[in-house]
Amino acid sequence: MSTRTAPGPRERLLRAAQDLTYRHGMGVGVDAVLKEANVARRSLYEHFGGKDGLLAEVLRRSTDEDEARYRQTMNAAGQDPRDRLLAVFDELARVIDAPDFRGCRYLAADLALPDPAHPGHAVTRDYRDRVRRLLEHELVALGHPRPGHAAAQLLLLVDGLLAAGATRQGTDPAAATRELAEHVIDTRAPGVSR
To answer: Is it the case that residue 4 has pLDDT exceeding 70?
Structure first.
């Protein structure tokens, strides 16, 4: 018979903070996190050095999960780079339609954390760079004439779609964003036809 080990204080803090900061924003109070995690204040400082360290670790953990979801979405779309890129926007359309969607965790963190030196900003910058490289890889495989530039444009569309999805319910930003993504993806060098 196997025994199930309950998560320790560190894991409970991470789970509670990940959930609460997504639902209520980065300004969620330490007391609310401690109560949700059912841990003593001392555990927060022992494991993370304080709230800033906890928030940075929550963001780091989320980036790994979200990058894996991008990869899973693209892999499920097959081998064609165009299909793989457009699958990202199709998946994001489903994401923003979910009843528990609250917007982009990373954009919200960047806006809510006023200190530019907060460790969370380094995590969000790194995450966006990882997603940009993922998109650029597909654009290179597609033979896009400016894969780096196009990847930056697609990332901007991702950010915009997630922001509009949270703030403009009922306007179908996903359809407009996918159409714009197609234009970026289908750009060819002068004189080259598809």
So the answer is: no
29-62 residue pLDDT tens: 899 999 999 999 999 999 999 999 999 999 999 9
Backbone angles phi, psi at 163, to 5 degrees: -70, -45
Measured distance CA(73)–CA(139) in Å, rounded: 16
- How far apart (Å, rounded) are the C-alpha atoms in residues 90 and 88? 5
> Per-residue pLDDT tens for 86-111?
999 999 999 999 888 888 989 989 99
Q: Into how many domains does the chain fold? A: 1
> In this structure, is residue 40 part of a structural domain?
no
What's CA 69's distance to the chain center, in Å?
9
Domain-embedded: residue 12: no
- Rounded to two decimals, the pTM is 0.85
| Amino acid at residue number 129 | D
Evaluate whether residue 38 is within a structural domain. Answer: no
Q: In terms of residue numbers, what domain contains 80?
A: 59-185
